[in-house]
Amino acid sequence: MNTSPATSVHFSRRDVFALGFMTFALFLGAGNIIFPAESGLQAGASVWRAAIGFLLTGVGLPLLTVVALARVGGGLTALTQPLGKVAGTVLAVAVYLAIGPFFATPRTAVVSYEIGVVPFFGSSDSGLLIYSTAYFALVLYLSITPNKIIDRIGTLITPVLLLALAILGGAAFLKPAGSVGEALALYQQEAFLQGFLHGYLTMDALGALAFGVVIASALRSKGVQTERLITRYSIYAGLIAAVGLSAVYLSLFYLGATSQGIASEAQNGGQVLALYVQHVFGPVGNLLLAVVIGLACLTTAVGLLVACGEFFSERLNIAYKYVVIFFVLFSWVVSNQGLDQLIKVSIPVLTGLYPLAIVLVVLSLLDRCWRSTQLVFRGTMLVTLVFGVMDGLAAAGFSAWVPELFNRLPLAEQQMGWLVPAIVVMLSLAVLDRYRSNHQALPEQH
């Protein structure tokens, strides 16, 4: 639509909510449903302390990322500009490939198959092949026309997902499987920290880096052209998504906390949910869970592919539809390697990238606190990169390669050893930046 800035469209309240529902659906993947149930099961009586920690990282970080992207126009490229063209491009490419065709997108197909299909038909290589083929055909249909993503996801798919989630969340409070259990393991002493770390593991801040451009592009396709309105509506969408995610997380935390009697042997959140829906809804419960997980994975996959398609289409000067078709086929091939192999390879890479994403967003939001953005950005990101690589090596099982000094840092055991060094370096460089600015201004005053 060639609408000039002077005639930029203003969204109605209904349009804003459709955009917010789309954003909510983009974020809500299978991990966002499984992790809260698992954490709630372990938290027991400490459920609300754990939930608050989870909300800080599982909702707060993605929302801050959406705000940071909205301030710079919705693109990761603009966010990484202070790093320099080469470093910024390398980081952007790594993020898009990791959350796109290499790991996250194929995983949506495998997880939805494992939770939504296997309970009915059993597991087999041929079953995964058939399912992933149909799944990615639907993903391609929804992704190939990004200008229709608000209509197809925000107004068609998300209401069905919300209804299924409302049934599941309502049942968690109205028909709990039992009383709230006891806090288990680490949750007995550090429930807030464990919830915080589980929210961190959703990796939604990485997804938000990609979804920012999807939101901005969806707005432009609807005729919203001015940067001021794009920023405003993007933040509104992020807030609506944050409220929806918070409601889902709190209900799933309570579901887990009251399910110790039926799910004490569960190995993960998926098993907790499966046991709960069977207990409360009987055979229909598996169908409800299949709908929730299937739609959650589908919408996330669409958002990731649209983001990757638009990013690489612009960089490589190749038509968007050809890029998306290639990435869909690539994701389909990768998904058929199986879930265990995908997780084994993806965790170290995502663990190494995630600190960079967090620090990048924080630096962007604080950019008015210093004069030289390049000095603070580059120094802090370099230190974060070093520690992120160390965390990635540890997650990959190469702890012997990590110097002992890194293992002694606060939160190193939780793969957050980067946090304290990044804060120290950022503050130090901010002081140096202020000193240099004042020192250079002195001659001008004489």
Kindly state the number of beta strands.
0
Low-pLDDT stretches are 1-6
Order of helices and strands: HHHHHHHHHHHHHHHHHHHH
Shape: globular
Mean pLDDT value: 86
| CA(first)-CA(last) distance | 55 Å
Helix content: over 70%
The fraction of residues assigned to DSSP E strands is under 5%
What kind of sheet is the major sheet? none
Number of helices: 20
Radius of gyration (Å) = 22 Å
Counting helices, strands and paired strands, the structural category is mainly alpha
Write up what this structure looks like:
This protein has 446 residues and is mainly alpha-helical. It is built from 20 helices and no strands. The radius of gyration is 22 Å and the shape is globular. The N terminus is likely disordered.
Features:
446 residues; 78% helix; mainly alpha; single chain; disordered N terminus
Task: Break the fold down into its secondary structure elements and pairings.
Elements: H1 13-27, H2 30-43, H3 47-71, H4 76-79, H5 85-102, H6 104-116, H7 118-121, H8 125-143, H9 149-174, H10 187-200, H11 204-221, H12 227-257, H13 260-263, H14 269-281, H15 283-316, H16 320-335, H17 339-365, H18 373-395, H19 404-407, H20 419-445
Helix pairs in contact: 1-9, 1-11, 1-12, 1-15, 2-3, 2-10, 2-12, 2-14, 3-10, 3-11, 3-12, 3-17, 5-15, 5-17, 6-15, 6-16, 6-17, 8-15, 8-16, 9-12, 9-15, 11-12, 11-15, 14-15, 15-16, 17-18, 18-20
